[in-house]
Amino acid sequence: MEKKSLLPLLDNIALGIIITILFFFPLLFFPAVSDAFILPKQILIIFSTILLLIVWTTKLILKGRIGFLSNPLNLPLFLFGVAIFCSSVLSHNKFDSFMQSIPVMVLLIFSFLLINLLEKKDSFNLALSSLALGAVASSIISILYFLHIFILPFGNPNNPLFTTFGNPIQHFAYLLPIFFLSGTYVYQKIKSRNFEKITSDAANIIHFVSAFILLLGLSLNIYKIFFAQDRPIVLPVQYGIQIAASALTQDTQRQLPSLLFGSGFGTFLTDFTRFKPITFNLEPNIWNLNIAFSSSLVLELLATTGILGAAAFLYILFRFLKNRTSFMTHPLFLSVLCIAILSLLVPYSFTFIFLVFTFLSLYIVYLYLDHDKNVFDVNLTLVPPQNGLFSLDTHHKKSTSPALPLVLGFLILLPLCVIGYYSLRLLQSDMKFTLSQKTETLQNGQKTYDLLRDAIQIFPYRDDYYRLFSQVNLSLANSLTTSVKPGEQPTQEMQKAVFSLLQQSINSARSSVEIAPLTVTNWTNLGKIYRSLVNVGQNAEQFSVASYQQAIKLNPYDPQNYIETGGIFYQLGQFDAAIAQFQNAATLKPDLPNAHYNLGHAYEAKGDFDNAMKEYEIVKTLTQQNEESVALINQEIEALQSNMEKAKKSPTEIEPIPTTQNPLNQEESEPFIKTGSEETLTIPGPPSTDDAKEQTSPTPTPSIEE
Fold first, then answer.
1. What is the pLDDT of residues 574-590, one digit of tens each?
2. Greatest alpha-carbon span in the chain
3. What's 453's domain CATH number?
4. Where is average pLDDT lowest: 9-18, 98-107, 696-705?
5. Which of 244, 270, 417, 544 has the fewest beta carbons closer than 10 A?
6. Running DSSP on this structure, what letter comes out for residue 538?
7. Number of structural domains in the chain
8. 344 part of a folded domain
């Protein structure tokens, strides 16, 4: 087949891939993975980009030169990609950061290919139409679900607030710029007042219907955001600003890297826990939540990619605005302008960043097709050495060698194929992980164990896999020990299995810390595991306290961590230390009943009945709207009054206070392991913070012999 016939075929293949992506991206979700709305979209972009890169490289080889469009966004997009890559390399939670940054870096390549593969006006119009129709289809699905017309066989079939984005804010942000695109077109047609021509043109009718459906979708999402009972939670702007400023300036261990590159792209959750102000505890409805995204995309970039990452993104927007020329009233320009404004208002999401780069790319293509002087062809060719080896100009030259395009394609395609390979492994492991967390699976401990073990073996770079695997191992060990009837002794085989499960539980919990050393949940989980082994593990109580102290360093204003630490001291009978921890919790959040309840018990156990009574009265005041809690605290007060009266008569008549008292309104913790054996399990302590930060691969998780 000749080159002349191959090139149009490749153009058609590229166009088919592009319109498929733009149409199906807003619709794609997959309930069989943990992040049903984002992960499938990321996988789609990664593999579609690989296919587009193959097509583009093949075209370059056939032409014998590297040809691309020089445009105002090439440099800022490249700088943004470098900034997020550097932020991930320098991040303490490298694995978490790379799993978030790699899809965005691939998206930048997709944006570049989109610009360089849409060379004709018809192709551009088809791409733009596919983008709009995909948004319209997502609106139709949301509207039908709201009307209780459940057309999909999966995906929250009974939820009338369902959206293929999983979040009405992100759905709204996706629809609004596209509505500007269709709405502006409709407005211009209406303004012409040629209604007969408008109604006779099928394309105009499609635009009118699309704009109307998009408007309905936007209105429905506004209802979900502001008026629905299950409204999405967004970090208030004042906290987003404070956390970003603190992330840049208060990381004393890495001041310059944090200032320049932030904490690592995609790791805002660690910034939130480390740098949220104490005033956040005053928020009545969200104080106990860990919020994974900042108030807006720009504030998130400032915290996670530093001033260089945020500056690179703003530079992208600046170059777009600078190149406005005479297109300020063009629908495409208004849509991109809308996106630029939304980036200052809407939290980060992969769907939104996709829309940002897609619209910017389409705008550049439009400028090129309109012969804008700032967008032009550049060609790099390989020429004989006597002519300088390389030739760079803005004119199409006859090919002298396909070697240069071939080398370039290989250099770009190789890392993308590696990314594609690990993406498939991530998808496979995540499906097993998600299946392990289903209700019917959790009822079968062995099946849950096997699925989590397989997920870790397939993709051993996610801390949540190890964290949950540690809990499953602990639960299985506890189930074995509680299965022994009273008065009987466990067999040696059972004791061996229990100790193996406990050792694996510790190893898995430690691995989660080593993978993501700044994630508070990993440290609190490790502390709970150690606390459950106080009866059977050497130094388990010391290791538990050390783990919780590290959690407190990473989340200093969370009262719950102080309550947990105080509970350990209470369990050990160290009441003064327990009182100090409970007082810290009560100081951080004076209206938290659990803090005062635990503090009252610690005072009572110490024999300080007066202070105990004061704390119980505070609890009674704070829980007066909860009849069950009031009844419980009244019983505590009556028991305390009885003890106080006995103390006046004879101290020896005071009833002992149990040291395993459950805090008020708190779920019962995992039962302490009792193996029935006098053998003490030797367990490793928590990883040191320095070792955890330098860790490059997780601790291998041993498997139990069947």
1. 999 999 999 999 999 99
2. 110
3. 1.25.40.10
4. 696-705
5. 417
6. T
7. 2
8. yes
Percent above pLDDT 90 for the chain: 65
pLDDT value for 643: 84
DSSP 664-688: TT-PPPPPPP--S--PPBP---PPP
If you write DSSP's letter for every residue of 633-671 in order, what string do you get? HHHHHHHHHHHHHHHHH-GGGPPPPPTTPPPTT-PPPPP
Q: Got the DSSP string for 80-119?
A: HHHHHHHHHHH-SSHHHHHHHHHHHHHHHHHHHHHHHH--
Q: Tokens for 488, please give them.
A: 């009987």
Say which residues have a Cβ less than 8 Å from residue 610's Cβ, sequence separation at least 6: none
Structure tokens at 54: 């193959």
* Residue 457 CA: distances (Å) to CA of 425, 450, 451, 452, 471: 10, 11, 10, 9, 17
- Tokens matching residue 442: 């959790």
Same domain assignment for residues 401 and 449: no
Structure tokens at 617: 């009265």
151 pLDDT above the threshold of 70: yes
Same domain assignment for residues 359 and 443:
no
The secondary structure of residue 537, as a DSSP letter, is B
246 C-beta neighbours (distance < 10 Å), count: 17
Comparing CA positions, the residue from 72, 93, 222 lying closest to residue 161 is 222
Please, which pLDDT band fits residue 598 given cuts at 50, 70 and 90? very high
3-state secondary structure of 71: coil
Q: Cα separation of 699 and 96, whole Å? A: 16
Q: What is the pTM of this model?
A: 0.89
Query: Quick check: 542 pLDDT over 70?
Result: yes
| Domain assignment of residue 405, given as a range | 3-416
d(CA 544, CA 456): 25
Over residues 473-513, the pLDDT tens digits come to 999 998 888 887 777 777 888 888 988 999 999 999 999 99
Q: Is residue 247 part of a domain?
A: yes
Structure tokens at 466: 């190890």
Nearest of 310, 286, 307 to residue 297 by alpha carbon: 310
SS3 content of the chain, % helix, strand, coil (to 5): 65, 5, 30
Stretch 444-462: mean pLDDT, rounded? Answer: 95
